[in-house]
């Protein structure tokens, strides 16, 4: 929906077979942890190397269309548990990307030092339609409001002084 609204070509790359080699509660039938993240529950949602895989695919496409940048939306809240959201990962991958092809391209991660509430406030200033965004790990018709990702999203909207515009399964409202 967002791409259509912005008149941007939308590409879908099917990655579902990666679940056969990248194990996590997000890629198996294991129950996705609910509630606020703790180190142990958050680790259950780590999909090994997922961001490097997805960024590599995005970089390949960007090179193909002649783009000069790929943007990565890691934020500071992810640094503790997700190794592929840390500044040192972003820096190292950016260096690899700059030498992976003759076409010069850069990985940009403008939110890597911001928390979710700061990002929401920036989006508000940019008139982002947050009803078109999705955070839930469960992949159902409505966001669950219970997984760590939903809980953090709801808290970030509250901290930013905004109401989250998406619908949740149990009409959750902070």
Helices and strands, with pairings:
Layout: H1 2-5, H2 39-43, H3 50-65, E1 69-71, H4 87-98, E2 106-108, H5 116-125, H6 148-159
Parallel strand pairs: 1-2
User: SSE order, as H and E?
Assistant: HHHEHEHH
Number of helices: 6
Largest sheet: 2 strands, parallel
CATH architecture classification of the largest domain: 3-Layer(aba) Sandwich
Number of DSSP strand runs: 2
CATH class of the largest domain: Alpha Beta
Number of domains: 2
List the strand order in the largest sheet: 1-2
Residue stretches low in confidence (pLDDT < 50, at least 5 long) are none
CATH superfamily of the largest domain: HUPs
Mean pLDDT: 83
Q: Kindly provide the radius of gyration, computed on alpha-carbon positions and rounded to a whole number of angstroms.
A: 17 Å
Structural class: mainly alpha
- Percent of residues in helices comes to 25-40%
Rough outline = globular
CATH topology of the largest domain: Rossmann fold
Distance N to C terminus: 26 Å
Strand content: under 5%
Report on this model:
With 174 residues, the chain is mainly α. It has two domains: 2-114, Rossmann fold; 116-174, no CATH class. The chain has six helices and two strands, in the order H-H-H-E-H-E-H-H. Helix 4 (87-98) links the parallel strand 1 (69-71) and strand 2 (106-108). Helix 5 (116-125) crosses helix 6 (148-159). The longest helix is centred in the first third of the chain and has 16 residues, at 50-65. The relative contact order is 0.13. The model has no long low-confidence stretch (mean pLDDT 83).
């Amino acid at each position: 929906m967002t791409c259509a609204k912005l008149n941007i070509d939308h590409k879908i790359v099917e990655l579902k077979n990666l679940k056969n080699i990248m194990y996590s509660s997000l890629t198996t039938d294991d129950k996705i942890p609910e509630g606020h993240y703790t180190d142990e529950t958050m680790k259950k949602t780590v999909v090994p190397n997922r961001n490097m895989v997805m960024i590599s695919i995005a970089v390949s496409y960007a090179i193909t269309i002649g783009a000069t940048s790929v943007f990565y939306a890691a934020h500071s809240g992810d640094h503790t548990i997700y190794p592929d959201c840390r500044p040192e990962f972003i820096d190292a991958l950016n260096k690899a990307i700059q030498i992976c092809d003759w076409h010069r391209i850069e990985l940009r991660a403008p939110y890597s030092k911001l928390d979710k509430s700061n990002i929401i406030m920036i989006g508000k200033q940019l008139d982002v339609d947050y009803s078109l965004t999705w955070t839930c790990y469960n992949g159902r018709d409505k966001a669950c409001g219970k997984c760590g990702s939903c809980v953090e999203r709801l808290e970030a909207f509250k901290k930013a002084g905004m109401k989250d515009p998406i619908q949740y399964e149990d009409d959750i409202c902070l």
